[in-house]
Amino acid sequence: MTHAPHSSGTVAPPTGTGMHGSLLLDRFAALSAERPERPACLWENHSLSYRELDRISSRLAGDILNISGDTLGPVPIFLDRCCEVLIACLAMAKIGLPYVPVSPAWPEARTRKVLEKVGARIGIFSPAQPVAPGLTAGLSVLYVDAQNLPGEKSESKPDPSLQPGPDAPLYILFTSGSTGEPKGVVVTHRNVARFAASPGCPGYSAGKRITSCCATAFDLSVAETWGGMLNGCTMVCAPRETYLESQRCKDFLLGQSVDYGVFPTAVFNALASQDPSIFGSLDKVIICGELPNSALCKKVRDTAPPGVFYNTYGPTECTVFVTSEKVEDIDRDSTIPAGTPLSDTYLQIRGDDGTLLSPGNWGEVLIGGPGVAAGYFNDPERTAAAFVPDSLTPSATVYRTGDRGMIDHTGKLFVSGRFDDQIKISGMRVQTGEIKNLLNSAPGVEMAHIVHRPDFGLIAYVVLDEQRRKQGPEQNREALRNFLAKLLPSQMVPSHFSFMEDLPLNANGKVDSGQLPSPCFRPQTAEAQSGPSDILGAFRDALHDDAFAPEDSFLACGGNSLVAATLIGTLHRNTGVWVPLEFFSQPHTAQLVQMFISSASPAVSPPHGETGREQVRF
User: Fold this and answer.
1) 347 and 367 in contact (C-beta within 8 Å)?
2) pTM for this prediction
3) What ranges in 441-518 are assigned the alpha helix state H?
4) Are 95 and 61 contacting, i.e. CB atoms less than 8 angstroms apart?
5) Neighbour tally for 140: CB within 10 Å
6) Sequence-separated (6 or more) residues with CB below 8 Å from residue 271
7) How far apart are alpha carbons 527 and 550 in whole angstroms?
8) Which helix (H) or strand (E) holds 33?
9) Best exposed site among 251, 370, 465, 569 by fewest CB in 10 Å?
10) CB of 212 within 8 A of CB of 202?
11) Mean pLDDT of 501-522
């Protein structure tokens, strides 16, 4: 296995006796020996102690080595929001092989592309999380099950001589790439050890309980998994839908005595819009992923604030987050800063010509310090372009974020927009160029362009060939959405498709986004023109689709889990009834919701705990 290192070497670890200069595994071993019976993870009525986590991860590490033989390389983990994630991540760390998080929400084609890129020979699965049979083809399959731990006699340990150094790759996390190919960010043991040790934020304490809100394929999950493990915390697992219904989530946080909450900003917004008091029981809340909504943050602070509330900022290429800002006195119309750097991290703002800019000037944000990742997996060209020598200290490397930012005179970073076509959706990084390239390859498409507008979401502007135009906009819209859904995660499939005779071009022959019209919605039916019910109107407002009908599918018309979460809050405010999240994955969605609300009393809350239903996958 090879990965592209920095072109200029690695930042030297700081001196002293802190965790930064020691191995990540040494820190875990010390914590595990100190309180071996402390729970590392809780789920339902089960628990996994640090002693058990250490033992079973060692056994899994030995099994991986036995199977892999001489073909050592990255190992994908098909796990999400469960105790098995901790076991698999720690096992891989013990033998110095990077793990590759694979999201169960990815379409099969995208997963296959990632597996091919890393040359996967082994896959780690959980029997409780089924995977499409086609994805196991060609893989040696290892199952890990935290509910059925092997006995002491079956324990096997990897060779101690294999213990990796601090610059060994810990994981490879794939993000959207502008060329249409996902790119894998290589993060090292040192990167994560430095992050977990940061005293201010995250600043975790041993024995505290932490959420499991973030998908494993999202970099913020590292703040829950490794951030928890390397500080002696207990991760409390719950299904994803728990974090999308405020009543269910509130009951979970209180019932499980959770101390720390780590939330993608989009999830925080959805929960806060339903119930701003939901976070009041937590000692600490950390949000990250996109610019926070000041009005919602103010509502949370004014209603029932957590003990400490952090807004954070940072790209995947710098491990998790690199700045933090305590959210305290807020004006609903003000911009919340990204904050000040974590310890040992430094920021630079540079102009178009690479000149270092003084405080108060806007330019590109560059990040330096021990959190800067090793580069992109097997991609030296893109690594060299993004991870560059620091002109002030050539032996160090800084990462060019592409974010437009400014450092004010107090040292706080503000971020506003990008210098390219990268955007954030639900906290996940999305390159519109990747969507455009795939859409241009669809049958019947002559030209396509993708635009993101906060009020509408992703919009695809498409020029079809003559044969396709004869099929009508509704059929073409469905065909293109289905085409993209087989290749891209759901948050990257456009909500709206506008069909045009041609696309406006500027003097350089590129699409002039400023000249594109607002999205063209479906023509309204006679029923739609007669005036919607309050419930149907709420669906149309949430989807920005005035033709959404009672028999339509919420998901087929551009809905997703976060839109559903916001809609749940709107419907509760309008009717006093909590609608279960599961309803939004059903056909005839508005009709089903209307029937449920009509038959329910205002006291009805969404189901929580074990209901026997399948987990919702949006």
Assistant:
1) yes
2) 0.79
3) 466-469, 473-485
4) yes
5) 15
6) 243, 244, 246, 249, 263, 278, 279, 565
7) 10
8) helix 24-34
9) 465
10) no
11) 72
